[in-house]
Amino acid sequence: MKKHLIAAGATVLMGAASAQAEGISITPVGATATAFGAAQNFSGQVAVDIKSAGDSGKHGSVGMVDFMPGARTAWHTHPVGQLLIVTEGKGWVQEDGRPAREIKSGDVVWIEAGIKHWHGAASNTRMSHLAIAYMQDGKSADWKELVSDEQYNAR
Ligand code: MN
Questions:
Q1: Which residues surround ligand 1, an ion (CB under 5 A)?
Q2: Neighbours of 52 (CB within 10 A)
């Protein structure tokens, strides 16, 4: 009986070791705590859930970003570009020197490398998007100044 239990234990350990060597990684929901957008890079209330598993974070940054009404990113650029997939609500994206454009749930937005821009919620409605930015030299964004209330309200 004792011998049988030891054998069973060894099987469990081997099972754990082989699971680590698998080619697919799963990060369970809640494994990474929700963060709040840093005050130098965001205006208003912004919650960020980093979505990463295995080595994926080496190649790009993927985040689910929830903007409360009026909240937005600072002006910034992406070294290799950024894809936004709007999953909830309504908001705005603006390229420097051009009019802001409305974005809604279901829209997909591509921001080319080096383009100065911001994105955020509408003034009266929240907006959530999945943000996928590819990495260059370990960086996926270059942050600049905040979007002032005057700039936000001028849309
Ligand atoms: Mn961006």
A1: 82
A2: 18
